Amino acid sequence: MAMSLASPAFANNGLIPSRHTCDGADLSPPLVFSGVPAPAASLVLVCDDPDAVSGVWDHFLIFNLSPATPGLPEGLPAMDAYPDGSVSGKNSWGRTGYSGPCPSSGPHRYVFTLYALDARLPLLPGAGKGDILRAAKGHILASATLIGRYGRR
């Protein structure tokens, strides 16, 4: 079975509800993971906006999630490190935790990517996406993507 990433809040390529954006409560959406390969030692989740005017904008980075994690709840609080051992990276706003869609103009895509790794990453809280992906290079066993769309009215 292939690894998959889904959300009960929106379908793949569907509209992200405003409660998960800067126009609403700005809560992280609930996410469901399945098909994580048995040899995985950790998971990494990245959410970014490839349509941002200033270049790819990072909204949410979390690494060293347990491979047994079935997903993430809605409204995951911003923390540098979580009791389960997972760690937050720093988003493009310069803070840890989720910061939802807030496009300046037009509709944007928000790409959630889940990576299964054969190792835990030796990085500190606040690591940037570049650091996380460089550390993951050569350790990725599988990946899955979920795309949501949002445009301000």
Short description:
This protein is 5% helix and 33% strand. It has one helix spanning 129-136, and strands at residues 4-6, 14-15, 31-34, 42-49, 57-65, 71-72, 87-88, 108-117, 140-150.
Could you walk me through the main structural features you see in this protein, from its secondary elements to its overall organization?
5% of the residues lie in helices and 33% in strands. The protein has 1 helix and 9 strands. The strands form 2 sheets. It has a 6-stranded mixed sheet, with helices on one face.
How are the SSEs ordered, and which strands pair?
Elements (H helix, E strand, L loop, with lengths): L3 E3 L7 E2 L15 E4 L7 E8 L7 E9 L5 E2 L14 E2 L19 E10 L11 H8 L3 E11 L3
Parallel strand pairs: 2-9
Antiparallel strand pairs: 1-3, 3-6, 4-5, 4-8, 5-7, 8-9
